[in-house]
Amino acid sequence: MWADFEALSAIGSIGDGGVNRPSLSTAHLAARNWFASRIHDSGLELRIDSAGNHSAFLACDQPGAKTLLLGSHLDSVPHGGRYDGALGVLAAFEVLRVVKEMGERLLLHLEAIDFTDEEGTLVGELGSLAVAGNLREESLHSPRGGRAALVEGLARAGLSEAGLLAARRDPTSLAGYLELHIEQGKRLLNTSSKIGIVTAIVGITSCRVIFTGQADHAGTTALLDQRNALRGAAHFAIGFWEKLEQDFSRCVGNIGNLQVIPGVFNIVPERVEISVELRAPDISLLTRLEEMVNELSHRMAERFQLGVSVEWLDRAEPVQMDRIFQDVIVNACRDLGFAFQHMASYAGHDAQALASICPVGMIFVPSVGGYSHSPREYTDWQDCVNGANVLLEATLRLARGDLG
Ligand code: GLV
Ligand code: MN
Ligand code: MN
């Protein structure tokens, strides 16, 4: 697993410990090709579905057996870390190689899967939503990464929108989904626990807030005469963070990008597009956050005589992890002697999309410093191995039908 981790980390490496493998970029596709060749070397079966999800498959000999999915994603955020997603795919792959070597007869097929665009460079949880049969055509028409980037990426990968929309699996063929991931926060570090057992994943929604004013000469147009889109956007941003701090202590929100048009020193900005993301542990809070963004953006538009539109993009609802799967992971930790704790995830994961069609469970390992979505992301290798062992043990328990 270490050799694989080293080899994978070199693909899209940006030289400062991080990787740049945005979904369907050349580097991401190179990582997928590498994974396919490693699957080939292992003697496991390679499967690629019409959403581009890449899998290693290990069949059992039980007639009518279901498949237990294990996995994560090989794409990264732009200038991201080596562990986010990669660890889960490599650990899943290693589990299949170990089980194959053991030669034990199990009750489930096992599949180690790398999902397309978990990170949402284009759409977000694209491959897992497709498998769940919940990918909406609108998400492809107005993806949060922009339509042009999606069309380009699909062409580069040899994928099609029709293929994405046809990748649904029959839920009755699935026994569930298990994922190992780095925690991406500091909660495990602050305790003596080695393993986090995820209870729930927050809801995530994103939108583009667009202020429109008027381009004018920056020298000759008095401030009071300007219809400056950036002024509205700036006041929106300040108001957004104040609201989060005052009224939404259990939620998080982010303004990740501001596009100022025409973006020139001596022209009053005519148009500003703001990328906003909101996360909340329950649906009513998520809805209140969305209302806050709508209200605030319209108030700022009125104040600064601007036009405004709020374009809502994808919404992943908060989900609970399966109780039985959580207990299986608890038992796996006990077998292996690892201290554990239950925790909610404020990061999104493919388990969120799959929860609508099968039981899901997630295992977290500590992130040094809590850093993630950054080249500073780091997890001690021993913790990665511990997590992979918990994944193996939990998989064996499920695939033996031993849930006690
Ligand atoms: C995925 O990592 C996300 O939470 O944005
Ligand atoms: Mn991830
Ligand atoms: Mn991520």
Radius of gyration based on Cα positions: 22 Å
Task: Categorize the overall geometry.
Answer: elongated
What's the total helix number?
12
The parts where pLDDT drops under 50 for at least 5 residues are: none
Give the biggest beta sheet.
Answer: 9 strands, mixed
Name every ligand kind in the structure: glyoxylic acid, manganese (II) ion
H/E element string? HHEEEHEHHHHEEEHEEHEEHEHEH
User: Averaged pLDDT, please?
Assistant: 97
Strand content: 15-25%
Assembly level: single chain
Query: What's the total count of β strands?
Result: 13
What is the distance, rounded to the nearest whole angstrom, between the alpha carbons of the first and last residues? 29 Å
Structural class: alpha/beta
Helix coverage percent: 25-40%
Q: What would you note in describing this structure?
A:
With 404 residues, this protein is α/β, with parallel strands linked by helices. Helices cover 37% and strands 23% of the residues. The protein contains 12 helices and 13 strands. The longest helix is centred in the last third of the chain and has 21 residues. The model has no long low-confidence stretch (mean pLDDT 97). Bound molecules: glyoxylic acid and manganese (II) ion (2 copies). Glyoxylic acid (GLV) binds next to loops.
